[in-house]
């Protein structure tokens, strides 16, 4: 009788282990998929920027430093090796693009250029998708991190080598209220 109870308990523990492990695998894959969605949008932005820069070059020749900064920021995003590096480079690129659109306000003929307007629209849509993808990624990471840190999943997670994932965070400078001057 004791042997049968022990076997039943081992079978239940084994099934519980498998269920928890499979759930953790699903959650880890969701995190990786969420990151891939951010990557897709970053690639889309990466592809749009050269066209935007070329369009602006013709109108704003003396804005060379800004255009160079955008090019450098774009390269930094694509060469980033970690989530935190990607977040930092992406945030910098977003701020340089905001500067570009602010500069474009000084060029009425550029603002009226159909190609520029379409590129600006496409880029704004992409920025919105990036923001949504970041939010989705962070929500997915939060659920995953909670799972690997709470009982009983934390036991399986530590045995099987599941590690906490980093959130896609905004840099301190972007958290501050911007100064508006008239």
Q: How would you sum up this structure, described in words?
A:
This protein is an all-alpha fold and 182 residues long. The chain has a single domain, classed as LemA-like domain (de novo design (two linked rop proteins), Up-down Bundle), CATH 1.20.1440. The protein is built from seven helices and no strands. The chain has helices spanning 2-59, 64-79, 83-104, 108-111, 114-149, 153-160, 172-175. The longest helix has 58 residues, at 2-59. The radius of gyration is 24 Å and the shape is rod-shaped. The termini are far apart. The model has no long low-confidence stretch (mean pLDDT 86). Belongs to the LemA family.
Q: So what's the CATH class?
A: Mainly Alpha
Estimate the mean pLDDT confidence. 86
Specify the number of helices: 7
Count all strands and give the number: 0
User: Would you identify the regions where 5 or more consecutive residues have pLDDT less than 50?
Assistant: none
CATH superfamily: LemA-like domain
Strand content: under 5%
Q: What letter string, H or E per element, gives the SSE order?
A: HHHHHHH
Q: What number of domains?
A: 1
Main sheet properties: none
Can you tell me the overall shape? rod-shaped
Family: Belongs to the LemA family.
Transmembrane segments: 6-25
Membrane topology: Single-pass membrane protein
Keywords: Membrane, Transmembrane, Transmembrane helix
